[in-house]
Amino acid sequence: MALLSKNINKDILDVKNIETKYLTHLVDFLSQFFKMIGTLQKAIIVSLKEQALYNLGILVPLNFRTEKAHGVIGLNLETESNIYAEEIADTIETVVHQIDSIFSVIVPDSRLVMTKEIAIITEKEKKMAINLYVEREEKRISLKKESTGIIKLGSLLSAMIYYVQDEGAIVAIDELDIHIFEYLLAMLLEKLSQYAKGQLIFTAHNLLPMEKLQKDSIIISTRNDKHDIEYTYLKGISKTTNLRQKCLKSQRMWSEENIEPLLLNTSALDMYIKKLVME
Q1: Which of 24, 87, 196, 201 places its Cα 20 to 30 Å from the Cα of 5?
Q2: How many whole angstroms separate alpha carbon 217 and alpha carbon 189?
Q3: φ, ψ at 67 (rounded to 5°)
Q4: Residue 191 in contact with residue 209, Cβ under 8 Å?
C-alpha cells in the first residue's frame, strides 16, 4: 500500500507539473496574442480600394489618429454637405486642424479649412453639416473640386502625423506614390523618416524615394517564373550607390546574385533618334 500511495502521489505531481507547464505556455501565448491584437488595432491600413473612392469622386476616406479617437471617417463628395452627429463633427474638426498644420507647409499659400453649422436638432441629438475647403488667397475651393493629389494628401496626412509622433504607430499604404508629385513625395519621406517614432510601410513604383530612404529599409518585391511573389533586401550597397539607377539597370531583382544588365544598345538607340530628327 505504501508503494502504491507513493506512485499515486508521483503521478499526481507529474500531472500538476504538466498542467503548470501548459498553463504557462497558454498564458505566454495569450499575452503575445493580445499584444498583437493591440498592435493591429493601432495600425492604419490604406488600400487601393479605399483610394479608388476619391479617384471616382465618391468619397474621401479621412484616415486619422487623435488622442481620443482612431479610424476612418468618410466624407461624401457627391453631396453639398456632409451631415454628422455633433461628436463626430467635432472629431473631424480636430483632424482637419491637425492636417492643416502640415498641409499649409507643403502646399504653398494654401490651407485646409472646414465649415460647421447646425443642420438638424432633435430631442436626442444635434447633427452638424460640414464642408471641407482649400483656401488660397482668401478664396475657398471645395475639396471635391481639387486635384486627386490634394485630396489624397488630405486623406493621408493625419495618419502620417501619427506615424511621426507615436512609437507604436504602424501605417501601411498601398501605392503611396500614385497622384503625388514625385519630388514632394521624396522630400516628405526624407524629412518624416528623420524624426518618425513609428513605422511606415508602403508600396510604390516610383523609384525616386529610394534615394531618400535608408538602404536597409527598402525591400524589392517581384514575381518569379512560378508567379510567386518574392522579397529581397538589396545587398552590397555603398554610400555612393544610386539605388534608382541600380534598379533601372537590373532585369531581375528577386535574387541579388541574378542581377543582369538590361540588354539595351544605347548606340543603336542614339543613331535611331538622330535619324528621326534628320528625316
Answers
A1: 24
A2: 12
A3: -65, -25
A4: no
Distances 199 to 32, 163, 208, 263 between C-alpha atoms, Å: 20, 6, 20, 38
- Rounded CA-CA distance 233/266 in Å is 29
Q: CA dihedral defined by 216, 219, 220, 223, rounded to 10 degrees? A: 150
The residues near 243 (Cβ < 8 Å, ≥ 6 apart) are 207, 210, 211, 215, 218, 234, 237
Say which residue the cell 527598402 belongs to: 218
Cell numbers for 25, please give them.
Answer: 505556455
